[in-house]
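Example (one chain per record):
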Amino acid sequence: MKFAHIAIIIAAIFVTSAGGRAQPAAQTTAFSFDFTSIDGKPMPLKEFSGRVLLVVNTASFCGYTPQYQGLETLSKKYESRGLTVIGVPSNDFGQQEPKSEAEIKSFCQGAFGVTFPMTKKTVVVGNSAHPFYKWAADVLGKQSVPSWNFHKYLVGRDGQIIAYFGSSVAPDSGELRSAIITALAKSPPAL
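Predicted structure:
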């Protein structure tokens, strides 16, 4: 009888470890998520499949707001090699993005010449966070959750999240540029 009980426990452990659990977050890719553009149009990330993404939560009234210029420079410099910068305006930190999408777009284009894609205002932390941000936290851990504006997630050509960079890591930092160049050097996955 004890042997049968032990065999059942071992079988249960085997079934659980062999696929009885829900699909892990790593099985999902960034290209599985959809945003809405700053113009109110659907913005499925699968449109960027095979590209390297730098997803940045932004705010217009933040001490880090000048990073928009550096992000635009990165976008222009590496776009032809496969980089897409995506700005995600968020009012989550210090209420530093209180304006409408039209006002945000006008400000970013006028003050910094931003041409890279931007989403509508989006929640990036907490229970109401956008699913992309929840996924990123699941994959990289709680320490990777944005703690302020201009937090950056780097996504590889395969849609897997590679790394995160805190707000103080400037777009022109060697650390970020090196990570982007390394990600760009990898071939896009075969379809």
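Caption: Residues 2-20 form the longest helix (19 residues).
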